[in-house]
Amino acid sequence: MAGVILVVDDDHPVRVMLTRLLQAHGYTVLQAEDVKSARAVLEEEWPDLVVSDIVMPGVSGIELRRELRRRFPGLPVILTSGYSAEGPAEFAARTPDTHFVQKPFRAGQLLTLIEDVLASKRVSQE
Questions:
Q1: Which DSSP string do the residues of 65-108 spell out, in sequence order?
Q2: Domain extent for 96
Q3: At what angle do helices 61-71 and 35-44 cross, to 10 degrees?
Q4: What residues contact 97, with CB distance under 8 A and at least 6 apart?
Q5: Strand 49-53 and strand 98-102: pairing?
Q6: Which residues contact 67 (CB under 8 A, 6 or more apart)?
Q7: What is the pLDDT of residues 18-48, one digit of tens each?
Q8: Is the pTM of this model over 0.90?
Q9: Do 15 and 52 meet the contact criterion of CB atoms below 8 Å apart?
Q10: What is the CATH number of the domain that holds 24?
Q11: Strands 98-102 and 77-81
């Protein structure tokens, strides 16, 4: 059973690549180019998972994660970044339902993590 995934990334080619990859594997994909756009999407629809870049103009993906945790408890988030992994990985490790993937990543690596996260979410809802 696929799900709805919100992809938040200011890098248009990355956002399009992720969208195509996820759609090819049966997921419904919502897109946002920044946190402001993500907030607008979230007013209309609640995804099963958010995949967000960390470093974006304005509000960071880490701040988005904090906001999502308050507004949508239990909503899993996968944070990605091409910069140093140490801080984001530590943040993800201590923040429930948060995972970190270092860019560049392999498509299979991300897909496996998404499948695992969504399966875990389904089990916890039963």
A1: HHHHHHHSTT--EEEEESS-SHHHHHHHHHSTTEEEEESS--HH
A2: 4-125
A3: 20
A4: 69, 74, 75, 76, 77, 121
A5: unpaired
A6: 35
A7: 999 999 999 999 999 999 999 999 999 999 9
A8: yes
A9: no
A10: 3.40.50.2300
A11: parallel
- Say how many residues make up the chain: 126
Task: Print burial letters for 86-118: b (CB count within 10 Å at least 16), e (below 16).
Answer: eebeebbeebebbbbbeeeeeeeebbebbeebb
Residue in the structure block whose two tokens are 């059973």: 1
Which residue has 């607008």 as its token pair?
40
Biggest CA–CA distance in the chain, Å, is 38
Positions in the chain whose pLDDT score sits under 50: none
According to DSSP, the residues that pair with 50 across neighbouring strands are 6, 77
CA distances, 72 to each of 22, 76, 115 (Å): 22, 9, 20
Q: How far is residue 103's CA from residue 87's CA, in Å, rounded to a whole number?
A: 14
Q: What is the tally of structural domains in the chain?
A: 1
